[in-house]
Structure formats: structure tokens, C-alpha cells
Amino acid sequence: MKRVLGIGGIFFKTENPDETKNWYKTHLGLQTDRYGTAFEWKQADSDEKGFTQWSPMEKNTAYFEPSKQEFMVNYRVQDLEKLVVELKKEGVEICDEIETFEYGKFVHILDNEKRKIELWEPNDSVYDQLTVGRTK
């Protein structure tokens, strides 16, 4: 069973997300929106698109809890439901139930040092429609 297919996103805390997004736009050319930006790429051996999200977040965000870390990595996975069953068998701490959105399915887990990890089974075709105008 495949587990992680790649990095789905990088999320990090910052004192001022809008200033941070503006700095990256000004100095590195990222086209940002309220979420950050999405980098488009082609999946290996395919013409299908994939995306990696980059998101500065408020310093006081509760989204990373219960982790106390300043960042969270989102990993792209295949067949999230089966993966969660396997992770539960292995004793991995699952933080929440799988949530489904038009752009994919998500669940959060904790690693061995209590860092929160977001697992994403993407629907890249819908995500592509939602990211029009972002960095590609």
C-alpha cells in the first residue's frame, strides 16, 4: 500500500501573515491570496496536475493544536480511508475524523513527538479550478 505520495503543503505560523505574503510576493514573486499560494506541477509519468500549498498563518492559530510546533506539513496520500485503518492498527494517534471537501479528503495525526501532520487525499482537478491566478 502506498502511503505518502509527496508534500501537499507547508503551513507555518507568523506574526503577520499578510506582511509575510507580501514580502514573498515582492521579493520572490509568489502570487498570493488569502490562503498563501499553490505551486502547480505535473505528476510523474502523467500529464495530470498536482499542487503543493504554501500558507503563512496567524501566530496564535489553533489549527496546529495540540502540537506546539511553529509549522505543520501536509502530505499527499492515496486512499485516505485505508491508510487511517492501517495507522490505527499501528497505534498512531488520529486527531479527528476524515473530512471531505470538494478538493479532497483530510485527517490529522500526531507523530512520535506530538507534531501535528495533515494527510490529504487530493482531488487535483477541483483544486486546479480553485487556484486560478495563483503561482504556477
* Strand content range: 35-45%
Main beta sheet: strand number and arrangement? 8 strands, mixed
Shape: globular
Q: Structural class, judged by helices and strands?
A: alpha+beta
Low-confidence stretches: none
Domain count = 1
Order of helices and strands: EHEEEHEEEEH
Query: What is the correct CATH architecture?
Result: Roll
Mean pLDDT: 89
Distance between the termini: 30 Å
Highest-level CATH class: Alpha Beta
The portion of residues assigned to helices is 10-25%
Return the CATH topology: 2,3-Dihydroxybiphenyl 1,2-Dioxygenase, domain 1
CATH-wise, what's the superfamily? Answer: 2,3-Dihydroxybiphenyl 1,2-Dioxygenase, domain 1
Number of strands: 8
* Number of H/I helices: 3
Tell me about this structure.
The protein has 136 residues and is an alpha+beta fold. The protein has one domain: 2,3-Dihydroxybiphenyl 1,2-Dioxygenase, domain 1 (Roll). It has three helices and eight strands; from the N terminus they run E-H-E-E-E-H-E-E-E-E-H. The protein has helices at residues 17-28, 80-89, 124-130, and strands at 4-14, 37-42, 49-58, 71-77, 93-94, 99-101, 104-110, 116-122. Strands 1, 2, 3, 4, 5, 6, 7 and 8 form an eight-stranded mixed sheet that branches. Strand 2 and strand 3 (49-58) form a beta hairpin. The longest helix is centred in the first third of the chain and has 12 residues, at 17-28. The protein is globular, with a radius of gyration of 15 Å. The model has no long low-confidence stretch (mean pLDDT 89).
